[in-house]
Amino acid sequence: MATEYTTIKAILFKSKTLSNGEHPIMLRVTKNRVRKYISLGISCHSKDWNEKDNLPKKSHPHKSIIDKIISKKVAEYNDALMNLKSEDKDFTPDVLINKASKPISKITVFNFFEQKIQQLKDAKQIGNSKVYNDTRNKLKKFLDNKDITFSQIDYNFLLKFETSLKADGLSDTGISVRMRTLRALFNAAIEENYAKRDNYPFHKFKITERYNTKTQKRAITKEELKKIEALVFKQGSSEFEAQQYFLFSYYGQGINFVDVAHLKWVNLIDGRIYYKRAKTGTELNFKLPAPALKIIEFWRISNNPPKDDYIFSILNKQTHITPTQQHNRIHKVLTRVNQDLKEIGKMAEIGIPLTSYVARHTFATVLKKSGVSTAIISESMGHQTEAITQTYLKSFENSIIDEAMENLL
């Protein structure tokens, strides 16, 4: 395949002569011999045009003005060309012209924040909408409620915003979340033509290099899980429910707490659970092993429960109707569950603080120790990439290295 070339230059369009005897000055976009012409709204007589430089001759009375108009337009089209190439998108001259000539729409940063927050709420992504809302509030505090445009967000602006977040006592993880949210908003603004890609400040302000956000992903052993399973609590108590949720997550392919809360009887078909991950929208299903079936049976109120009833008693379809009500309820119950799990961990003499997420990490680690490939573990957990799964398995990999090092002694 031949290399594709794109050229952008101003030319005197002699095929057309105006009533004053001059010819239009056009911008010519050429890609693989396909040419398109864009009028610049200016003209020049052939005797005043330098064919070699594609500019008016020095003797032209308005040379400096025409030079600036041409230079500005060529720069705009070259910027659009670079953006298309950076996105690795195939394009025609018409696509390039459309991208370069499309004017930037006007919207303030806070108004765009409002739009995105509402979009997330409409999509029932309540947790994400709250992250955007919190980032907006932090930015409003930093700016003393003065609105700005995206063109005002540059590298120095981000440095000052970072300093204000540190002054508020935010950790590296907390600052990273706000900066990544602002970056996502800026990217969305570029896509919706509210911001220019050449003003993008996050190429220089590299979030991943500025903050230490690594948290240790912890798992327990299968033996420790059996100790948790052996503990006996009064049925219906908060400790009993915390224990059951933890075990169901482990036996239920590492299903996380939010998805456990949303499970309904309609999701249970022939001993399998079919559900869509709230976080990613990935559709998953898994066969329920005997311990997980036993846990579900405790919550079964009849032989044929209504299909739209929740399996577990985290949500109530009569009370928790809106996405916000459901989000708040799940957050409240999860806080209590994690508190109970920490006490359960102490009872079982487990050396790390027990949380609902430990069950998910344990599921992944036990499979890895059993020889299951990372790719299969990633698919079973609904991860979008294997790199995410690797973070779950990091502590396992470290332990293998530690055991190998013993051979040196």
From TrEMBL:
GO terms for molecular function: DNA binding. GO terms for biological process: DNA integration; DNA recombination. Residues 215-405 form the Tyr recombinase domain. Residues 111-190 form the Core-binding (CB) domain. CDD domains: INTN1_C_like (cd01185). The keyword DNA-binding applies. Keywords: DNA integration, DNA recombination, DNA-binding. Gene3D superfamilies: 1.10.150.130, Intergrase catalytic core (1.10.443.10). SUPFAM superfamilies: DNA breaking-rejoining enzymes. Belongs to the 'phage' integrase family. This is Site-specific integrase.
